[in-house]
Design a protein that fits this description.
Structural class of chain A: alpha/beta
Number of helices of chain A: 12
CATH topology of chain A: Peroxisomal Thiolase, Chain A, domain 1
CATH superfamily of chain A: Thiolase/Chalcone synthase
Number of strands of chain B: 9
Helix content of chain A: 25-40%
Largest sheet of chain B: 9 strands, mixed
Number of domains of chain B: 1
Strand content of chain B: 15-25%
CATH superfamily of chain B: Thiolase/Chalcone synthase
Number of domains of chain A: 1
CATH class of chain B: Alpha Beta
Strand content of chain A: 15-25%
CATH class of chain A: Alpha Beta
CATH architecture of chain B: 3-Layer(aba) Sandwich
Helix content of chain B: 25-40%
Radius of gyration of chain A: 20 Å
Distance between the termini of chain A: 10 Å
Oligomer: heterodimer
Distance between the termini of chain B: 23 Å
Order of helices and strands of chain A: EEHEHHEHHHEHEHEEEHEHEHHEEEE
Number of helices of chain B: 9
Number of strands of chain A: 15
Largest interface: A-B, 66 and 68 residues
Order of helices and strands of chain B: EEHHHHEHHHEHEEEHEE
Structural class of chain B: alpha+beta
Chain lengths: 404, 261
């Protein structure tokens, strides 16, 4: 990165709660957001789910009614959380609305809207008139909704690379800033519960009928969760915040469409590239938030990559999927906010539900919230198609590199 | 921002390959819609090849055409961006239909093909490419945001980027559309520096003017096809200035300078 990139605002809504302080309390108290029921839809599959309460009741502003769907309702909740909209307003005042970009990730956009409209179409031959494919289900809907809601006019995209989507948004944002196209970028991600993902993952045998147990011997797969979160990234030579994005890495496994490279080769490349950009060596990472989905293949592949990269010198590490479930296209932003909380509070967060650590992984996850000096956090996000992203966040005064 | 177009792929009904379409693009022959010939991604292992859908195949055949004169090594080093507004709506319709059943059963192949980055995944697997791959959508602002996303990836470490822009008609189960909507795909190998193979220079600048895009003849309602006028200008070796909306209040101006060959 040519310029230091500061995180000047952020917000997060997940099954753990609304806002960063709710998340910090739940993380400290080891309190999961996962439950074995969903209120908003009947999943017709036994599992644990991370549902955000109150999404169904969220009303969008009158001028944005065509965007009405669960995914944009959750986006609206997250934009209103943690003073995020106010921070965006301040940035607009500072830079101008055309100088602020928007890059957001989602895997399934508003497909739930089509699921819910389908029975009427099957019965009557056509959709009800209040079904709007373009502004809900179509893949660009989340970016259009956020840009319209915030009234910002810079570059804007949805990145949809499955479960790495809202990690890769940081890479795009950094490049736009480096090229002088924008002074600030809103990054984020939103994914919501729907039958398509629940039964799609179930078809692949990847849904755990019980609560998710990342890194356990008998891990049986994922729990699906929903979440929405945002960060405001600003280019600045001054330390306008105490947290910086210091590096990112993106890679492809080039191995299989839905199974990770068994040795975690692509994952390792992404982690190496992020370290290189941050001008850090692996021993300087204080906390690693694993992708750690709780499937046999992901956790093993990621463990190989971590062992290859860190050797004997593993940082404190954990998967936080036991708190949130796998929030898919929102996993990157969710865990980016957890890294921010780790840096701000000098805490590393635990790997929940660890009963019998799989010795084959050769990992030593922390199982208690742990106070420690934390200067640099790494977060991994990997998706279908062998699509990998790794992010490094640092306390501003500790960020590496000469340009800072 | 300046980049150089080094190679072009073009795959649409009646415009099958950049080379074969030259006379039509230069307005020497009238456009006639003809179905694309059958295609199979032979660069993929047989089991992966069988699983690809029409959407994935359209993206892959266009990417393949754009890199046909590059070595395997060169292809494996190009970060690759796939831009598509809708993704695979035929698969969406099938999955939604499947979850309506009393016992929902989605085909595992449909599910992993449903991700927006499925073409990217197949491409990177088939080309042994471990670089960054991405899949984006920007709706009405597709071309401007896509060009920015691709060109900002060029760097000394990544002097060439492969960009594939493709869109198909939305599945009629999800949205009824006028019958003339056709598929369209083009692919560009973009380079940071001019090379002996450069076909054209493109310079992008931001503009606060608001432009509306006129529907592209033969391909209305297809966002990918909004790039066709640029391709026609390249085919005619004509310089030109094109405008694409980036948002409701900003646009990019694309200054095209074909190489003198």
């Amino acid at each position: 990165m040519k310029f230091p990139i500061h995180i000047t605002a952020s917000s997060l809504v997940s099954s753990m709660g609304n806002g960063k302080s709710a998340h910090l309390s739940a993380l400290k108290a080891h309190r999961t957001g996962l439950k074995n029921t969903i209120d908003s839809l009947n999943p017709r599959l036994d599992s644990f789910y991370g549902e955000v309460s109150g999404v169904t009741e969220v009303a969008l502003p009158q001028s944005l009614q065509d965007y009405h769907c669960r995914n944009n309702q959750l986006a609206w909740l997250a934009l209103q959380s943690d003073g995020f909209i106010e921070a965006v307003e301040a940035a607009k005042h500072k830079y101008g609305a055309t100088r602020i970009g928007l890059a957001v990730g989602t895997s399934t956009s508003g497909i739930l809207e089509t699921e819910q409209a389908w029975p009427h179409k099957n019965a009557e031959g056509e959709f009800e008139t209040d079904y709007h494919y373009e502004t809900t289900h179509r893949m660009n809907s989340l970016a259009d909704f956020c840009a319209d809601a915030l009234e910002i006019y810079g570059p804007r995209i949805v990145i949809s690379t499955a479960c790495s989507s809202s990690a890769k948004v940081f890479a795009s944002a950094s490049r736009w800033i480096d090229h002088g196209l924008v002074d600030a970028v809103i990054v984020g991600g939103v994914d919501t519960l729907c039958l398509t993902t629940i039964h799609g993952f179930n078809a692949l045998g990847l849904v755990n009928p019980d609560i998710v147990k990342p890194l356990n011997c008998d891990r049986k797969g994922i729990n699906i969760g929903e979440a929405g979160g945002f960060m405001l990234l600003e280019k600045s030579d001054n330390n306008v915040s105490n947290i910086q994005l210091s590096g990112f890495g993106e890679s492809s496994d080039a191995y299989h469409i839905s199974t990770p490279h068994p040795q975690g080769l692509g994952a390792k490349i992404a982690m190496e590239d992020a370290l290189k950009m941050a001008e850090l060596n692996s021993a300087e990472i204080d906390y690693l938030n694993l992708h750690g989905t709780g499937t046999q293949s992901n956790d093993l592949a990621e463990a190989h990559a971590v062992n290859d990269l860190f050797g004997e010198n593993q940082p404190m590490l954990s998967s936080t999927k036991g708190f949130t479930g796998h929030t898919l296209g929102a996993a990157g932003i969710t865990e980016a906010v957890f890294c921010q909380l780790a840096l701000e509070n000098q805490l590393a967060f635990p790997n929940l539900n660890l009963e019998s650590l799989d010795p084959e992984l050769n990992l030593n996850p922390i199982i208690e919230t742990t106070e420690s000096e934390i200067r640099h956090c790494m977060s991994n996000s990997f998706g279908f198609g062998g699509n990998n992203a790794c992010l490094i966040f640092s306390l501003a005064q500790n960020a590496g590199g000469e340009s800072r | 921002m300046i980049a150089y177009i080094e190679s072009i792929g073009l795959q649409a009904p009646g415009l099958e390959s950049w080379q074969a379409s030259q006379e039509v693009l230069q307005d020497k022959q009238p456009y006639q819609s003809e179905p694309l010939s059958k295609y199979s991604p032979k660069f993929l292992p047989a089991n992966e090849r069988r699983r690809t859908t029409d959407t994935i195949k359209l993206a892959l055949r266009t990417a393949e055409e754009a890199v046909e004169n590059y070595s395997e090594e060169q292809i494996s080093q190009m970060p690759t961006l796939f831009a598509c507004v809708d993704g695979d709506t035929t698969i969406s319709a099938k999955m939604v239909e499947a979850v309506m059943e009393e016992e929902p059963m989605i085909s595992p192949i449909h599910f992993h093909n449903s991700v927006h980055n499925a073409p990217a995944g197949y491409w990177m697997i088939g080309q042994h490419n471990q670089q960054a791959a991405s899949a984006i959508s920007a709706g009405d602002y597709q071309i401007a945001n896509t060009l920015i996303e691709a060109i900002t990836q060029l760097s000394n470490a990544h002097p060439k980027v492969l960009l594939v822009i493709y869109d198909l008609p939305i599945n009629p189960e999800i949205k009824k559309h006028s019958p003339e909507v056709q598929a369209f795909a083009c692919a560009l190998v973009l380079s940071l520096q001019p090379t002996a193979d450069s076909i054209a220079e493109i310079e992008l600048t931001l503009s606060d003017k608001i432009y509306k895009i006129d529907p592209v003849e033969a391909f209305p309602e297809n966002k990918a096809a909004e790039f066709l006028p640029v391709l026609k200008s390249i085919a005619k070796r004509e310089a030109g200035e094109f405008h694409f909306p980036l948002s409701a209040k900003q646009a990019i101006s694309l200054n095209l300078t074909p190489s003198s060959q």
